[in-house]
Amino acid sequence: MKAIRIMEYGETDALQLLEMPVPQPRAGEALVRLKTAGLNFIDIYMRKGVPRVALPVPFTPGREGAGIVEAIGDNVTDIKPGARVAFTGQVGSYAEYILVKAAELIPLPDDISFELGAAFPLQGMTAHYLTHDYYPVKAGDTVLVHAAAGGVGLLLVQWLNHMGARVIGTVSTEEKAETARAAGAHDIILYTQQDFVAETLKLTHGKGADYIIDGVGKTTFTKDLDAVRRMGWITLFGSASGPAEPLLPNSLQAKSITVSGGSLFNHIQSREDLLRRSRDVIDAIRAGWLKFKIDHVFPLAQASEAQHLLESRQTSGKVILSME
């Protein structure tokens, strides 16, 4: 099989297309013939060897994909060869085949494409837990979403809008502003031209946002403390601009702010949670109010170009690798 391998940490030229043997499933595993793989920022951090997410080299990157079960190992009863599936979490999706624990596979209905199957698991279920598991979003709440035109951002905007919240989105360009507005953002802040704290306070008549969802990190998190209301909530779930600066816990006392950190994989520890969240996302797609924007589809051999596009923040929506 063909697979992208990282032999040493580095820039996008570290992604090499090589021939590898097709693995064989062990007990509890399924061999999936991949049709598509989804790109995420964590793939870039892993390629660079960023501490906390780095894997020993060599390895095949990618933590999300969709395809068809080719074979199963012993003790697998609820997934059969020929089944359409999606997954997130298992590293190695930049390849034509991958082994995945059967308990971590998401059944992919016939009416959901393989491209969508590689787009919705990580980002869709991330948007789900960020809108359901922390601050209890109610109709009329004001929620500030950073990078509102990004992959997760666009889904958050749609989900919060569906819940009746007022969404303020930060974006870097006018083009991304239009994308976020089309997804349902009520107000847009161009953070490259405006101070998002001052604009948020102006839009909320000095009160601040009820809830801030931050996947950017270093360039935004410290200012979030000024943009959130008294007794408001901030959830940090990513670090697209780098890790957030250290925070003195006592600094939260002045406004009684709650700060939480999020990672999807803590929210899908059980198969029941995985199926419940994925089912909610699929139901929302089918209902028509949750739409995934597939920004670019690259062949597997162009993984370096795909990662460069994502890393340079030139995307608005999901970047996909195709094995076809």
Which whole number gives the mean pLDDT?
96
Helix content: 25-40%
CATH superfamily of the largest domain: Medium-chain alcohol dehydrogenases, catalytic domain
What structural class do helix, strand and pairing data support?
Answer: alpha/beta
Named at the architecture level, the CATH assignment of the largest domain is: Alpha-Beta Complex
Most strands sheet: 7 strands, mixed
Note poorly predicted spans.
none
Q: The CATH topology of the largest domain is what? A: Quinone Oxidoreductase, Chain A, domain 1
Describe the structure.
The chain starts with a strand and ends with a strand. The longest helix is centred in the middle third of the chain and has 19 residues. The strands form three sheets. Strands 3, 4, 5, 6, 7, 14 and 15 form a seven-stranded mixed β-sheet that branches. Strands 10-9-8-11-12-13 form a six-stranded parallel β-sheet, with helices on both faces. 28% of the residues lie in helices and 26% in strands. The chain is globular and about 60 Å long. Helix 2 crosses helix 3 and helix 2 packs across helix 7. Strand 8, helix 3 and strand 9 form a beta-alpha-beta unit. The mean pLDDT is 96. It folds into two domains: 176 residues, Quinone Oxidoreductase, Chain A, domain 1 (Alpha-Beta Complex); 132 residues, Rossmann fold. It is an alpha/beta fold and 324 residues long.
